[in-house]
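Q: what does this look like with NAP bound?
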Amino acid sequence: MARVAIVGVGAIGGVLAGLLEAAGRHEITLCTRRPLEGLTVTTPEGVVWVKAKNLTDPARAEAVDWVFVATKAYDAQGAAEWFPSLCRKNAPVAILQNGVEHRERFAPYVKPELILPVIIDCPVERQQDGSVVQRGPARIQVEARRLGAEFAELLAGSSARVEQTDDFITAAWRKLCINSAGAISALTMKPAGVLRDEALGNIALGIVAECVAVGRAEGARLEESMGQQVLDGYRAQPADSINSMLADRLAGRPMEIDARNGVIVRKGEKYGINTPLNRMAVALLKVFEGSPCP
Ligand SMILES: NC(=O)c1ccc[n+]([C@@H]2O[C@H](COP(=O)([O-])OP(=O)(O)OC[C@H]3O[C@@H](n4cnc5c(N)ncnc54)[C@H](OP(=O)(O)O)[C@@H]3O)[C@@H](O)[C@H]2O)c1
């Protein structure tokens, strides 16, 4: 049994809560900004009712054994307000966010040896009432080290497929390649089918090529065919699939612009690699962020 707190209970936080509940032996605390009226997760195997304590005030939190952070990347500072109480006894902090800067983002708040970056893939939607619909299995990748093994053990017995990898940097940049091209949906306000258009498909290839170049400079092993793999993946999705950046734009929420495309521009500058397509995507998305949808 472990005491596990989840900070940020949206789509991914909800999935994690369902997985911990299904594992069947943990004491779960859900740390949210607004009170939760219970949490249900509808999964392909059935509905999971999460039995958990819900807190909205960081000052009232007690020390736990593990903290899972599942806020958006831009909410890192707010998430960190929970750490002084939750991590009083040096609990490790698993960061389940997109991007490649999990460590950098949380370095001001958590000792480096206690941070576990996590990559998660899971088809999931958060409903208006706060419940979560998980449409397929969660695939999770962590570093093959002690904290990664402990994290995998926490989810043992659930449906999650947790892989421990010796090459986490490649896993993270591979996911970023996919996410970076998702900017086209957010820019055009159209779901994945928009990438079936030849001209937009070519732009997606260019965005990913920039990501590959910068990722390789960072040490990721990304093959030449990465762009085509990403494009084929989007084209194989149902045409009406909505990525989380588009969902955020449609809902008038902030978007993870910096974590998904800005990082390619910033790190590209460090290595002298030009990233004009990502630079343009960032500039345009920043204009649209927070504007009412036309
Ligand atoms: N959704 C996906 O399919 C998916 C897949 C893979 C990876 N990811 C990544 O996973 C991360 C989480 O994404 P998501 O889709 O789950 O986001 P989400 O549905 O927007 O959920 C984020 C939650 O964090 C909460 N939050 C923000 N600041 C907080 C704070 N200070 N204290 C407590 N709760 C706080 C938000 O509260 P409010 O409800 O009050 O806004 C929201 O409920 C992102 O980095 C995303 O890119 C998502």
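The chain has a mean pLDDT of 96. The longest helix spans residues 198-217.
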